[in-house]
Please model this.
Amino acid sequence: MKGIHHIAVQARDWDASLKLYRDVLGMPIVAQFGTSERKIILLDLGGGGHIELFQPQSSTPAPGTSAVNDPVTHFALHSDDARADAEKVRAAGYRITVEPKDVHLDPLDVAIAFFEGPSGEVIEFFQVKNLSK
Model:
C-alpha cells in the first residue's frame, strides 16, 4: 500500500462543506463526477491524499443527527493493483462488496474495489491508471 488515497465524506450541507474544504482550507478540486442529482468532487489534501465529497440527497441525515458510517462513508487505500489487492483480501476471508472494475472519474481513469473490514468498516482500493485530458 502507498497510503490513503481519499476519505469519502457525505456532506449534509453542500455549500458549507465546499466553503470549508475548498475555500477555507484551500483544497483545489481535482475531479468532478457523479450525476446531476448527486455531485461528487475530489479535493486535493496535499501529500497525495484527497477528500471525496458527496452532495446530500433527500435520504441524507440532517445536520446534527447520527447515522452509521456517516458522514465518513469509507476510506480508500492508494493501490498499485486494485484487482490483485482485492484477490489478496478475498483469499484472507474478507468479503468483497464491490468487485474490481475500471471507472472514469473525469479526468481520472481508475480501477476500484471495495471490501468490508473486520469491524464493518468499508475500505476501497483505489488505483489511478492515468489522468485523461
About this structure: The mean pLDDT is 87. The chain has two helices and eight strands. Strands lie at 4-10, 29-34, 39-46, 49-54, 72-78, 96-105, 108-116, 122-131. The helical segments are 14-24, 82-91.
